[in-house]
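User: Before I run my own analysis I want an independent prediction to cross-check against. Here's the chain; please return only the structure tokens and, at the end, one sentence I can use as a sanity check.
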Amino acid sequence: MNLEALLKTFSSTLSIHTEGHHLVGCSDTEREDMYGLDGEEIYYYNFNKNKAVVAIPEFADSVSFRFPTDFEPCVYSTKICKDFLALFTNNYVHQAEQTDPPQTSIYPRDDVVVSVENTLICHVTGFFPPPVRVSWSKNNVNVTENITLSQYRPSSDGTYNLFSMLKIIPLEGETYSCTVNHKALQQPQTKIWEAVLPGIGPSAFCGVGLTLGLFGVVTGAYFCIKAHTSKSNMDANNQILDTV
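Assistant: Structure tokens:
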């Protein structure tokens, strides 16, 4: 059996199914060319730096993926996109535009440990059409550094989603907020996250209860022994008096 037949047999046996997608988009001010696999962003082209950016996580094996290095096809495809955009804009009778507002959530990437570097993730999903604007603040002060933003990712329902990430070193009492602007929103949408030390959990309460219980047992045993000793001494004294 040759390698091709073996791979077909292996894939058929395990019912392996993957779905790749190539997204080319543009507007009057923006361009996007992104490749993905099974709904996850693999890499995209950064038009400001004229290079491809690998978007897979650090723990993934990037050697397994072969990324195109030629930038010209990407430039050409987005040029075609802009030509079609201009054509439709000039000749299409505008109807009421469908818009879907975003849903936003904010959460830490890892378990929070005070003074240990972490990443806050602002997930914006369910919006149409792009773009959205995402901004961060710390203790009500605007933050502009240590921020990364994913490309727009299409969802199966025709809407889009993206991630904005902020590297932080959490300290107790600090508050961070992620604010999203989109044309479907009447006002900006803001989600707030506060750095809080882990509270006393059930295990701690159980430990305290057990300690108090043991203390009560020891104390009770002490007084019982003391009372028994005192009674024995009194009985002995009474016997001595009776003898006298």
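Sanity check: Residues 1-15, 200-210, 240-244 have pLDDT under 50 and may be disordered.
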